[in-house]
Amino acid sequence: MNDVSVRVSRELLGHFEEEDEGFTWRIVTGDEAWVHPYDPENRRRSMEYHHKQSPEPKKFKTKASPGKVILTVFWNSEGVALPGFL
User: Fold this and answer.
1) What is the pTM of this model?
2) 61-71 pLDDT per residue, tens
């Protein structure tokens, strides 16, 4: 751990000892992850059953996939406080 992490950890511990559990209820934390967009409607269409005599499905122009996006989520002791996509 670096000096800043140790100092912040000690400050948080001091607040916890002074205020007991009331302090932990105000803590907000967060995380982020790269995710791939998923469109269940397109997935469902691609899984439709066709027998051998059915006409060839029409090909439509597809939109370029947006690729990956970052999902950010912040939460506190009561649950998710702020979800978002970047």
Assistant:
1) 0.48
2) 666 666 788 88
User: What's the rounded Cα separation, in Å, for the pair 71 and 86?
Assistant: 7
The residue whose two tokens read 């996939």 is: 65
Token pair recorded at residue 56: 């060839």
**How many C-beta atoms surround the C-beta of residue 69 within 10 A?**
13
Strand order in the sheet with 69-76: 29-35, 69-76, 79-85
Q: What is the spatial distance between Cα 81 and Cα 59, in angstroms, rounded to a whole number?
A: 42
Name the phi and psi angles at 24, rounded to 5: -65, -25
Distance of CA 70 to the CA centre of its chain: 7
Closest CA to 63 of 35, 34, 37, 33: 37
Note whether 56 and 16 are within 8 A (CB): no
